[in-house]
Amino acid sequence: MTFEKIYQYNFPTIIRFGMRSSKELGDYLIKNDLQRPLIVTDPNVSQLGFFKELVGDIKRKNISAEVFHDIHKNPVKSDAESIATGKELWGQHCKSCHGTKGVGDGPKAAQLKTEPGDFSKADFQGQPDGSIFYKTSEGRDDMPSFKKKIPDADERWSIVNYIRTFKK
Length: 168
Ligand code: HEC
Prior knowledge:
single chain; mainly alpha; Cytochrome Bc1 Complex, Chain D, domain 2; 2 domains; two-stranded antiparallel ribbon; two-stranded parallel sheet; binds heme C
């Protein structure tokens, strides 16, 4: 391995690293029509120069990137009890749009302006628990915020555990 070269892996999602590889990100997002990326990292990395530079580079390309850096581990163990809780909440709050198995085919899906996505896919499942938790809590456009509707954070983490069972 040498730092002069940029390496690429494709499991579970594309990973590229090497000197200046972060400079490719803006053009990659534009090419793939990803106009509103959520950049997920931890509190330490978010303070580093390279990270601030990366976010600045993207914003200069007029991409409205949002940064979430409060990432931490899932505090709720993924045991049978948590998965059962998650399943019940999924049925009450999520299934109508995301469908029984999370593939995005719920009865309300057709009326949505944005596609709810397919949660069985590797690119969805490749994100950390904290990212799924954040998106569930905050919402965006047609995706409601669940901070108030499901005020118990541990219950929202249990939904994340249940969502992991959709993985193909
Ligand atoms: C009214 C329909 C609706 C309901 C109900 C709903 N969602 Fe969503 N959800 C969406 C839409 C639409 C998106 C895509 C939003 C976007 O891309 O801006 C989305 C996106 C998401 C994402 C991000 C997907 C990704 O690709 O990373 C997660 C995670 C998510 N929803 C989880 C949930 C959970 C968990 C529940 C239940 C607690 C829920 N949603 C309930 C419509 C819904």
